[in-house]
Every structure is written in C-alpha cells, then in structure tokens.
Design brief:
The chain is α+β, with helices and mostly antiparallel strands. The chain is built from 6 helices and 5 strands. Strands 1-2-5-3-4 form a 5-stranded mixed β-sheet. Strand 1 and strand 2 form a beta hairpin. Helix 4 runs parallel beside helix 5.
Length: about 260
C-alpha cells in the first residue's frame, strides 16, 4: 500500500509540473508580444534625450539675450546713419585717378631735377681738373723727372731755373725740344719740371720725356695730331728708355772688362 501511494504522488507531481510549464510558456509569449511596443517607445525616448540641468539655464540665458538684443542695436543703427550722412560725396573714378597721378608726376620731376644737378656739377669739376693741371713722369738711366703743366703766362722752369738760363746749350736744347711742336698754346701755360738722380744728360732726357707726355695729355682736346708728330719725330719722347747700366763685377775695371795678366 505504501508503494502504490508513492506512485500516485509522483504522477500528480508530474501533472503539476506540466501545468506550470504550459503557464510559463503562455506568459513568455505574452511578454514577447508586448516587447516590440516597449522597444519602440524606448527608441523614441532615446531620440529625444532629456535636457540636463546645465543646458536648461543656458536656454534661459539665450532667451534673455534675444529679448535684450533689439534694445541694444537700436542706438547703433542711428549712429551708423549719422556717419553715412557725414561722408563726402564720391568722386568719379576718372577724376580721382587724375588727381592721384598729378602729385606723383610733380614728385618725379623734382627728383629728376635733383639728380641732374649733381651730375652736371660733377662733369664740370672733372673737365676743370683735366684742363687745370696735368702731371707726367719720365725716366732715363738713374734720373727721374716729373713735369707739371698748368694754365699760366709761358713760364718754364727746370729745378727752379728758367729754361733760358740753363748754362749748357746742348742740355737746354734737349729739354726744350717738345715745345717746338706747339704753336700759340705755348704762351698760355706754365711748365714746372723737377728732376733727381743720374747725370746731366740723363736728367735732360728724362725731363724731355716728362714734358712731352704732359703736353699730349694737356692739349688732347685742342691738338689731336701732337702725339703722332712726337712718335714720328722721335719715339723716345713718349716712351721711356728701359736700358740700364750693367753693374761692375770683381776681377775687372768694368762690367765686362777683365784685368790683364803680364808675364814680364
């Protein structure tokens, strides 16, 4: 009897479990039908998120500003109108361009005149320097001569001595040789020659070369044929003689001569 009672209890328990399972399935199906409706409602809420506490006062501030803006802008518009009223009338573009170019042209003309003035002065100074004084140098052996030609009254000096007072006639003719190729211009200039080193003939030939070079440069604008005449007459008038005396050696009286040996 005890065994039979246990079997009945087990059967009843199984029936109860089946009933509970079926009820649970039905409830699950009901929840599944309501779930999509809830999801749609939740999605709508997410699309429109609730405003935070920080955003709410910001909106209030913006609303206040919108109410205040027209009050502040009203006087600014009036001021702008007054400014537009005070502006002068606009000129035509052609007239404005003409007025803008006129001062530029005047400034350019003043600059051009200012540039031309110093150039003209510089040119005059250079021309005066060339015509006023000319310095030339001549050499012969150990003698060096420097001749200075300047405007004057025909006064020629050789180491502070006038050409006409040089005692040796041969030396005087050598020094005055370049003056024979000049005409009337000889009376309107002064020549001062200073010589040092060498002997009498070496100094005379050096002075002749220096005088000829100075005259060619001084009278370049007056007489173009003077240089050709000097070269045709004697090339050494314009070209220094490069020859020098050979120095003496030992075992002889001169540069090349040797002492003789006697056996008697």
């Amino acid at each position: 009897m005890i065994f039979m009672a246990t079997k009945k209890d087990s059967k009843e328990e199984k029936k109860d479990e089946k009933v509970h399972a079926s009820e649970h399935v039905k409830e699950h199906e009901k929840h599944a039908e309501k779930a999509p409706e809830k999801k749609e409602h939740e999605r709508a809420k997410e699309a429109k998120p609730e405003k935070t506490e920080h955003e709410k006062p910001a909106e209030k501030v913006q609303e206040k500003k919108e109410h205040e803006k027209p009050v502040e802008k009203a006087p600014e518009k009036k001021e702008k109108k007054e400014v537009h009223a005070a502006k002068p009338e606009k000129k035509k573009p052609e007239e404005a361009k003409k007025e803008a170019h006129e001062p530029k042209k005047e400034a350019a003309e003043h600059k051009h005149e200012a540039k031309e003035a110093p150039k003209a002065k510089a040119g005059k100074k250079k021309a005066q320097k060339k015509s006023l004084v000319v310095l030339a140098r001549g050499k012969r052996k150990e003698a060096v001569a420097r001749a200075v030609v300047s405007p004057g009254k025909g006064r020629y000096t050789f180491n502070r001595i006038l050409f006409g007072t040089i005692p040796n006639r041969y030396i005087r003719e050598i020094v005055m040789e370049p003056l024979g190729f000049i005409g009337k211009e000889a009376a309107s200039m002064d020549i001062n020659v200073s010589v040092h080193g060498g002997g009498q003939l070496g100094q005379a030939q050096a002075a002749r070369t220096a005088i000829a070079k100075a005259l060619v440069e001084y009278l370049a604008t007056v007489d173009d044929k003077l240089k050709a005449a000097y070269l045709e007459h004697d090339r050494s008038l314009l070209v220094d003689d490069v020859r020098r005396v050979e120095p003496k050696k030992y075992k002889g009286p001169k540069a090349r001569a040797r002492f003789q040996k006697s056996y008697r």
